[in-house]
């Protein structure tokens, strides 16, 4: 990729408990636009007591800042995005813009535009972010139209129901075709925002047009089009506008939605390659790979389940998925640093801005394993120093 023009830097001072709000205010003024995000950003974090945290931003704080912004704005509780699917299906916990975002804030479209800029900045800088974007949403980032088959990535239950209706409408059995009308549907759909429901017509006078076997295919296409391309059009276009301010669309034309997700969030489709991770891991503070203790450490990691491997990687790097080009492309490389275990029983901790695992030397392998598992499963050892 070509570098951004200019070498200017912008200082950003943010409170950890208001990170998206403070970043948005600092970088989204009309007269500033996306220019700061195209240059170097120097981040200063402010703790809950209003004190600036010590630290020099050599790149690690940028990663921590972007990861924290993404975690906040893409969290469904923030109100901008919702998760797709239901627990247990393949689309569960992927994010897409929320239709109801405007209820929470009159500035919601500006917020979506800024979220698009942050995604673009992360992609350009090669910083992996944890949220998994729904395929129809990525298609919008690519400027592509969503079709009926894309609905299964947004709402599997609705897609399954519409495909069942299609089979009924095209059936050679008269009873099946008549069953379409028996569903009692018309050309409108109901949408909900924070408990308030209202109906939307899919065509002029749609509330008075019954769905039958003869017009079922039209109904299916109109409903899918509304859900995929119309319902959150304003939010998606705002994200797209911000994203394209940093990532020209021509850079992504060769990729499909799953490939773009790999670029944004890393490889979540294959087991984490532990041999590759070990081969590109650094050590400091007195540790080195030939030590019995480090060998015991890797034996513990080898014995983890795939879910625990993902938790382990997220604990150190803030992202549970491995880099698309392998761990050799991770910058900075994962490093295991020896630290004192006083006070007794101190847990492993991590500085995700530097991909650094701070590992005390425990007395035996079982203690090492239990402390490590507790830390990665609860984030109890999360550390920013």
UniProtKB/TrEMBL annotation:
<dbReference type="InterPro" id="IPR000569">
    <property type="entry name" value="HECT_dom"/>
</dbReference>
<keyword id="KW-0808">Transferase</keyword>
<feature type="domain" description="HECT">
    <location>
        <begin position="33"/>
        <end position="385"/>
    </location>
</feature>
<dbReference type="Pfam" id="PF00632">
    <property type="entry name" value="HECT"/>
</dbReference>
<dbReference type="GO" id="GO:0000209">
    <property type="term" value="P:protein polyubiquitination"/>
</dbReference>
<dbReference type="GO" id="GO:0061630">
    <property type="term" value="F:ubiquitin protein ligase activity"/>
</dbReference>
<dbReference type="InterPro" id="IPR035983">
    <property type="entry name" value="Hect_E3_ubiquitin_ligase"/>
</dbReference>
<dbReference type="GO" id="GO:0006511">
    <property type="term" value="P:ubiquitin-dependent protein catabolic process"/>
</dbReference>
<keyword id="KW-0833">Ubl conjugation pathway</keyword>
<dbReference type="InterPro" id="IPR044611">
    <property type="entry name" value="E3A/B/C-like"/>
</dbReference>
<protein>
    <recommendedName>
        <fullName>HECT-type E3 ubiquitin transferase</fullName>
        <ecNumber>2.3.2.26</ecNumber>
    </recommendedName>
</protein>
<feature type="active site" description="Glycyl thioester intermediate">
    <location>
        <position position="353"/>
    </location>
</feature>
